[in-house]
Write a structure and sequence with these properties.
The protein has seven helices and no strands. The protein is mainly α.
């Protein structure tokens, strides 16, 4: 199955774009069109009302970063933490055995952890700017100094 290893950059691109679509779909309305129902939902789960905007910012800008593959690792870890908090405070009210209540945010968190540990892949601005090592590329020095 070695040939599948060559598809890893495409798989990471697909994962980034799929997560980007999901996070923009859920984050943009929180940021651009917050409703009283959204505010009530957040406050009913013990969050301050400004967390609605914070969640919208994290999800919307995280989605944009995923789409272009820039600062993918830190963005992914922040979004994984957000999903972990959502599971803890909102989706697991019926206990840990009620997986059907938190399977979606758990899947998002797991995918974000994967991106946070593996990185964005070859088809990303992270790869273009920082290369494989994750450190910013420096221009080549000429031997005449």
């Amino acid at each position: 199955m070695k040939f599948l290893s060559r598809l890893q950059p495409l798989a990471l691109l697909t994962l980034r774009w799929a997560l980007s679509l999901v996070f923009i779909y859920h984050g943009y309305p929180k940021l651009a069109h917050p409703t009283d129902a959204m505010r009530d939902f957040f406050t009913s789960h013990g969050f301050p009302v400004y967390f609605l905007g914070l969640a919208g910012i994290l999800e919307s800008f995280g989605a944009l970063l995923f789409f272009v593959g820039l600062f993918t690792r830190p963005a992914a870890l922040v979004l994984a933490a957000e999903m972990a908090i959502a599971i803890w405070k909102v989706h697991s009210t019926h206990g840990i055995m009620s997986v059907k209540d938190y399977e979606f945010p758990l899947s998002l968190a797991a995918a974000c952890v994967i991106l946070g540990t593996i990185g964005a892949g070859s088809f990303s601005l992270d790869h273009l700017i920082f290369g494989e090592s994750g450190k910013k590329k420096r221009p080549a020095r000429s031997g005449k100094e």
